[in-house]
Design goal:
alpha+beta; 6-stranded mixed sheet; two-stranded antiparallel ribbon; 8 strands
């Protein structure tokens, strides 16, 4: 699976400690809005835009994320292939796949 994705890595500090939040979206989806019924998926530039990287690099960031948001066929497909997410965790909004990772 070729192509690049945007990765934004954020360190969040609160009373529970420091946690890494990672947002990843396929390159061509940045800044777009998808609607289906009452659901709206906003691929917000302020949240998702970080570094433009290859899939392999994005996956490395996901491996160490406490929480992650993934949008797009490429990143979701690779995360599924590597079993970082379960197929049942993927929802589609206007055909665009979205998933979250939360480690407890």
């Amino acid at each position: 699976m070729m192509g690049r994705v945007y990765v934004n890595v954020m360190e969040v500090d609160d009373e529970a400690g420091s946690r890494r939040v990672v947002a990843v979206c396929d390159e061509e989806l940045l800044g777009k809005v998808f609607k289906e019924g009452r659901i709206t998926l906003v691929v917000n530039k302020e949240f998702f835009k970080g570094s433009l990287v290859d899939l392999d690099e994005a996956i490395e960031y996901l491996r160490y994320a406490y929480t992650a948001m993934l949008v797009g066929e490429r990143i979701i497909g690779e995360a599924l292939r590597l079993r970082l997410i379960h197929p049942d965790a993927v929802i589609r909004v206007s055909g665009v796949p979205f998933a979250q990772i939360v480690r407890i």
